[in-house]
Each structure stands twice: as structure tokens, then as C-alpha cells.
Specification:
heterodimer; A: alpha/beta; Rossmann fold; six-stranded mixed β-sheet; four-stranded antiparallel β-sheet; 10 helices; globular; B: alpha/beta; 2 domains; eleven-stranded mixed β-sheet; ten-stranded mixed β-sheet
Chain lengths: 264, 456
């Protein structure tokens, strides 16, 4: 088992302790790609951020095990070193730090924690050259400050590029398709799919629209409504949602409490 | 009932001035007397004066100073090495405790069209006209008592002339060092730069101290840029922690001329910089970049005065502060756009990073606009490091402390990346890297234009 989430409850202290996750259960095995879909405000992004360790969310109950280890006890950087990666929905800009330096610093932090030798600028470039081609990234891009002045597509490509370079065990993609046109979407999806070829990796795709899932075809789809997973299924569930919309499922969820555990 | 105003006692300075030998040149001696008289009239400013409300100079007035003596024989090249850029400069002038040191200076192979001299020698040896025409014409004795005080001590200072059309590849460096002992000393460094028409040059000035002790540096720099000329000036202040540093930098820019000014403050207990620009001709351009990195109980007050006196002039101000522990900073950026200054395009930004809950920043713009077809923008931000940026780095495996160091370095590097005088940029970045446990030769981003638009 790669990721096991049990009865996860989380709230936002800064928003009057509003509870956003109300008992999420989810299990992801190696080689699996799970999609989480849901209406706005359902808690999708919160789930992604809680897995990554964002301190603005407070976990009040429940457990997250990553390869059997207690993830909630780890800081964000420790989780990254364990192999968790979050592709942000709104990647922040970091003026004054080049993409190349930033990524090398990240890589070296992780390598250092594993007692592996750090890479200098030249070695790093050699290592990433292949990944740069995969995500259509040129050296000019690498010299720009992180995400500064980047278009939506460039930001998302940068996220997947980082993912390719850091080669995490679990990739969490938070609405990676938002703001992307079809061409940018294809490049990004192509990058993700290349990484998915490694069956020791796992992927959690958080998305509002079904469109992305035509390109990154999931093994399992879960519907998150009001902080709980109310329905799970195979990839057809996504298509079904596209036809019926979330409203029907929301109704069903409030009629009978459906708590399904995802995957097997 | 009459209010008794406690004026700070400054009589010691008149005594010290009388100890300094009079100038051998009549007009210079008269200028000194004028300076001293004006200083006696103005005295030290009190915190009741608006311009000095946030910076008290009482600690300076309360210190008893002795005249600095020349200790050039005790100072070796090895000792000044951290501050010297002789191997990367066209020339380097070194002053110890206010005295010119020929042994420590490097002025052998001056490029064609450049003249360097100490003020006293220049006044005596060369034609006085050029010096008389420019010295003390720009910094106003009567508006600032510290300028008056500095003028009252005129003797050894430096003058640099750059002939018209000369393009210098390497910078000229003037290094003012103090070697305080048990007794506090005061120096009044003076620099005049006259850049001829269409010339291109870079001037670096460094103010630093060797050893330990209290001293007071009261500097005045005047730089006049002739039509079409371009001067890049980088000042680095690295005084010892107990020092007082007060400086006035006066730039005069003629038609089509350009001044690019970088002003870095790292040292001293108390710093006050008055940076004044007069855009005296159409199309004159000014960029004022500032970087202040202080901690402990250091206090830095930077005042800018940009006088848009002519039309079609662009100006760009970016002053950044990194304040740790109990440090305090002040920024006041006054921009005056006179009625004739149509098509002025002025931008002013001040950004402060507060790295502790006790650090304090006071930032004020002051725009006075009398022309109607102008663009004037100003902005100021003050706050801690951005939480989202920190999380972004941590989510990629960079530990919390390292993330903070990197982001702080990046914040300051925004200024240093604009300095084209390579040895100055390097010295500052090495200082910043050392503070943050980052490698010395760190280049986290490429060089950018001196007036690159500011990021948020």
C-alpha cells in the first residue's frame, strides 16, 4: 500500500475552524491512479494540501499512512523526502530565484537526506535534459525566476517538470488542468503518463472537470462531496458525472449516507 | 512662557576644525569657513525637526571625538584586502582616517582621459577653475548641517574628472577606512566626480572600519553628470557596528545624462543617508537602488529627494530593507515634479522584509506634483517572508530554515542583480550568502537591468 487515508477530518483555523474534510477514506496502491472529483468547496484541494503538509489546515481526526509510516507526524519537507509531491493548483511565484536553482536546491535537499551526493549546476543540467524535452522546457525557461510572469500553461508545465525531476513515489495533482488550453493539457498529460509508466509510482489526480481524465486515464474515480467520498467507481464514473453533473450525486449522498472506501 | 529648546552641544567640532591645518588655497579656506559658520548656525538637528523626527543624532553629539590621525603605516594591503577591488578597477584611492594613503592606493595606470587627485593637491597643482566650478556647488551647505560640517573640514578628499567622450571599462574605487582606537574619531570624507559630456563611467565608494571602536563618518559625495554622460555609482557602507555614519550624496544630472545609483548599508549603529538628485536638463534619467541589511539595534534612515526640474525625465527608485532582531529602518522618498517637468515618469518602491517581531519600519512617500502631464507611481510593502513561497519550497524538500534563507537572499539579490560593477555586486552577495549559510559564489539568477520593473 502506498497511501492509506483513514477517517480524515480537517478544518481551517483561520476560517473559524470550518471543517472541510469530514471523514475521508482512501487507499492507493503502487501503480494505481486515482481521481478525486467534486464540486467547488467539496474539499478536493484541501485533501491535496493536507497530504502535502500545508499548516493552514488542521487535522482533527484520522490517519494518513504513507508506505506504512505516519505521514501526519512529518513536516512538509520530510514528506517530500519520503516521496510525496504536490503539483499546485496555483503555483506561487518566487522572484529572484531561477527555476534551475530552485529545482537543483530541491533535488539536493532530497539527495542529502538520503546520503546521496549533491549535484552541481553542470551535473544537474545533464540530469534534467531529458525531462526538459519531455515537458518542452528550454534553457531560457530554466533561467527565469520560478513561475514569474509564467502563463497558466507554463506554470502547470513547470509543476509536472518538477515532478519529473524529483521522481516522487506519490504524485498529487491539484486541478492541474485548470486554466489550460488543449495543447498545454496534452503536454502536461503526456508528462504525467510517462511517469506513470513506472508501476512502483502512484498518482492522485484532483479535478473538477472530466476532460483531464480523457488524457490521464484513472484506475479509480472517487466523488468528494462536502468533505466525504460519497461514491467510487472505475473510469466510467467520470463520464457518468459529466452527463449527470454533481447535483444528482449530492442528492443521493444526502438521502443515504454513502461512505465507500476507494480502491481495493 | 518661552520654551527652552535643548540644543545639542556641538562646540567640539569647531575646536576639532581649528586643529586641522588651514587650506593653503585661499578660496578653499573661505569655503571651509563658510561651512563652519553655517554649521555653527544650524547645529545638529533635533528630533523636533520633521526631517529628523525618527533619527536622533544625540548619541553622536554626546560622544567626545578626537581628530583621526594617519595610521597608514599600521595598515597593510592585506588588511584592506576585503575592501579593495584594485585588481578589478581602473584606479583605487585609499583614505585612512581621512588621510590619503599613496602607498595603499593604486593609481599607476590611469586610463586616458581620467584625472584623479586629492582635493588639496588639485586646488594647488592644477587649474583651480574646474574644481572651483564644481566643488560644493551641488550639496547645499545651508540646507543640511552635516554637509556644512563636512565642508568645514575640507582638506584631503578626492576629485575625479572624466573627460568628455571617455568610456571607462573598469570602475574607479574610493575606499574610506577608519581605524578607531580607544578614543572615538571623526572623519569627513569628501568626493567630487565630474563626468564630461557623453562619457561613460562607474564609480564605487566603500566606507569601512578596521578593528573595534566608536567613530563618526560624515561623508559628502557630489557627482555631476554632463549632457549625455552616464555614471553608475555604487556605495557600500560596511562600518564597524559601533560607528555613526551620516552621508549626503548629491547627484546633478544634465540634459540626456544618466545616473544609476546603488546604495548599500550593512554596518554602523546609526546610519543616515540623504540621497538627492537634481534632474537639471531634459531627458535626464535617474535610477536609485538601495539595499539595507541590518540587525541587532542598528538603525538606518534613508531619505531620497528627487527633483524633476525638467521635462521628459524618467526616474526609478527601489529601496529594499532586510530588518532582523531589533533593527529599525526609515524610508522617506520625496519626489518633486516642477511645473516645467511635463512627461515625467517617476516610479518609487520601497520593500521591507521584517525577519523578527521586534524589527520596525517606517516608510513614507512624499509626492509634490505641479505639472499635469506626468506619471508618478509609488508603492511600499512591509512584512515577513511569504508563507506560500516558504511552503512551496518545503513541499519540494527544502527544509524550513533553508527556505527562509533562500527567500531572504533572493529578496536582497533583486537589488544586487542590478549592480553592473561586478566586484561590488560580488562583495555584497558574498556578504548576504555568508549571513544565510549559502555558498559564496551563489548566483541564483542572472543580472537584470538597473531599472527592471519591480516584482510585487
Amino acid at each position: 500500500m502506498l497511501l492509506e487515508i483513514k477517517n480524515l477530518h480537517a478544518r481551517i483555523p483561520a476560517a473559524d475552524n470550518r471543517e472541510v474534510l469530514r471523514g475521508v477514506d482512501l487507499t492507493i496502491h503502487k501503480g494505481e491512479t486515482h481521481a478525486i472529483m467534486g464540486p467547488n468547496g467539496s474539499g478536493k484541494s484541501t485533501l491535496a494540501n493536507v497530504i502535502a503538509g500545508r499548516e493552514t489546515y488542521e487535522v482533527t481526526e484520522g490517519q494518513i499512512l504513507f508506505e506504512g509510516k505516519n505521514l501526519l507526524e512529518m513536516s512538509a519537507e520530510e514528506r517530500a523526502r519520503e516521496g510525496v509531491f504536490l503539483a499546485f493548483q496555483y503555483p506561487v511565484e518566487i522572484p529572484g530565484v531561477s527555476t534551475s536553482y530552485f529545482l537543483r536546491a530541491a533535488m539536493n535537499s532530497i539527495r542529502k537526506s538520503r546520503n546521496e551526493p549533491e549535484l552541481d549546476a553542470g551535473e544537474f543540467l545533464k540530469y534534467v535534459r531529458e525531462k526538459m524535452k519531455l515537458l518542452d522546457i528550454d534553457s531560457a525557461f530554466m533561467n527565469r525566476a520560478v513561475n514569474e510572469g509564467f502563463s497558466g500553461g507554463e506554470k502547470k508545465r513547470n509543476e509536472i517538470f518538477q515532478m519529473a525531476v524529483l521522481d516522487p513515489k506519490l504524485s498529487v495533482l491539484d486541478e492541474t488542468d485548470s486554466g489550460l488550453d488543449i495543447d498545454a493539457l496534452k503536454v502536461v498529460a503526456n508528462g504525467v503518463n510517462k511517469l506513470r509508466e513506472d508501476k512502483s509510482r502512484g498518482c492522485l489526480v484532483v479535478t473538477h472537470y472530466q476532460r483531464l481524465l480523457d488524457y490521464i486515464v484513472p484506475d479509480y474515480v472517487h466523488v468528494l462531496i462536502d468533505g466525504r467520498i460519497v461514491k467510487s467507481g472505475g473510469k466510467e464514473l467520470a463520464k457518468e458525472l459529466e452527463l449527470t453533473g454533481y447535483a444528482k450525486i449530492e442528492e443521493q449522498a444526502s438521502d443515504q449516507w454513502l461512505v465507500a472506501s476507494g480502491g481495493k | 512662557m518661552a520654551r527652552v529648546v535643548d540644543k545639542l552641544d556641538v562646540s567640539q567640532f569647531a575646536r576639532l576644525a581649528s586643529l586641522t591645518p588651514a587650506s593653503r588655497v585661499a578660496w578653499m579656506d573661505r569655503l571651509r569657513q563658510r561651512g563652519m559658520e553655517s554649521f555653527a548656525r544650524q547645529g545638529f538637528p533635533s528630533t523636533r525637526q520633521e526631517e529628523w523626527r525618527l533619527t536622533s543624532v544625540a548619541p553622536i553629539a554626546k560622544t567626545l571625538f578626537t581628530p583621526g590621525r594617519y595610521t597608514g603605516d599600521e595598515v597593510t594591503r592585506k588588511i584592506i584586502a576585503p575592501y579593495s577591488i584594485a585588481t578589478e578597477a581602473a584606479a583605487e584611492l585609499v583614505f585612512i582616517n581621512g588621510y590619503f594613503s599613496p602607498e595603499l592606493s593604486s593609481i599607476e595606470s590611469l586610463p586616458e582621459g581620467v584625472l584623479l587627485n586629492t582635493l588639496e593637491s588639485e586646488a594647488i597643482d592644477e587649474s583651480e577653475t574646474l574644481l572651483q566650478r564644481h566643488l560644493s556647488r551641488y550639496a547645499d551647505i545651508d540646507k543640511n548641517p552635516f554637509v556644512a560640517l563636512n565642508t568645514g573640514f575640507l582638506r584631503d578628499g578626492a576629485v575625479i574628472y572624466i573627460d568628455r567622450n571617455v568610456e571607462l571599462e573598469l570602475p574607479i574605487h574610493v575606499l574610506f577606512l577608519s581605524t578607531p582606537g580607544e578614543d572615538p574619531i571623526v572623519t569627513n570624507p569628501r568626493l567630487l566626480v565630474v563626468a564630461g559630456e557623453n562619457s561613460q563611467s562607474a564609480v564605487a565608494t566603500t566606507y569601512a572600519g578596521i578593528g573595534e571602536g566608536v567613530y563618526f563618518t560624515n561623508g559628502v559625495t557630489e557627482i555631476t553628470v554632463a549632457p549625455g554622460a552616464r555614471v553608475e555609482h555604487c556605495k557600500i557602507q560596511q562600518e564597524l557596528r559601533e560607528a555613526f555614519h551620516i552621508a549626503t550624496i548629491q547627484y546633478n544630472v544634465e540634459r540626456g545624462g544618466t545616473i544609476i545609483s546603488h546604495n548599500a548599508t550593512l554596518g554602523a549603529a546609526l546610519t543616515r543617508n540623504d540621497v538627492n538628485v537634481n534632474l537639471a536638463g531634459e531627458g535626464a534619467e535617474a535610477t536609485l537602488n538601495g539595499l539595507t541589511i541590518v540587525e541587532g539595534r542598528q538603525h538606518v534612515d534613508n531619505r531620497l529627494f528627487l527633483d524633476h526640474a525638467s521635462p521628459n525625465c524618467p526616474s526609478h527608485e527601489l529601496y529594499k530593507y532586510v530588518l532582523s532582531e531589533n533593527a529599525s529602518g526609515v524610508f522617506k522618498g520625496k519626489i518633486l515634479v516642477r511645473q516645467a517637468a511635463q512627461k515625467t515618469n517617476a516610479k518609487q518602491t520601497s520593500q521591507t522584509l521584517l525577519l523578527s517581531d521586534d524589527a520596525v519600519m517606517n516608510s513614507q512617500p512624499a509626492l509634490e506634483i505641479y505639472a499635469d502631464d506626468v506619471k508618478c507611481t509609488h508603492g511600499s510593502t512591509t512584512g515577513p517572508l511569504d508563507d506560500q513561497q516558504i511552503f512551496y519550497l518545503r513541499s519540494r524538500g527544502v527544509p524550513l530554515d533553508a527556505a527562509k534563507h533562500l527567500l531572504t537572499y533572493a529578496f536582497a539579490a533583486d537589488i544586487t542583480s542590478r549592480i553592473k560593477i561586478e566586484p561590488c555586486r560580488r562583495r555584497l552577495e558574498e556578504y548576504m550568502a555568508a549571513q544565510h549559510g549559502l555558498p559564496k559564489d551563489l548566483r541564483i539568477q542572472k543580472a537584470i537591468a538597473h531599472d527592471e520593473p519591480v516584482r510585487k
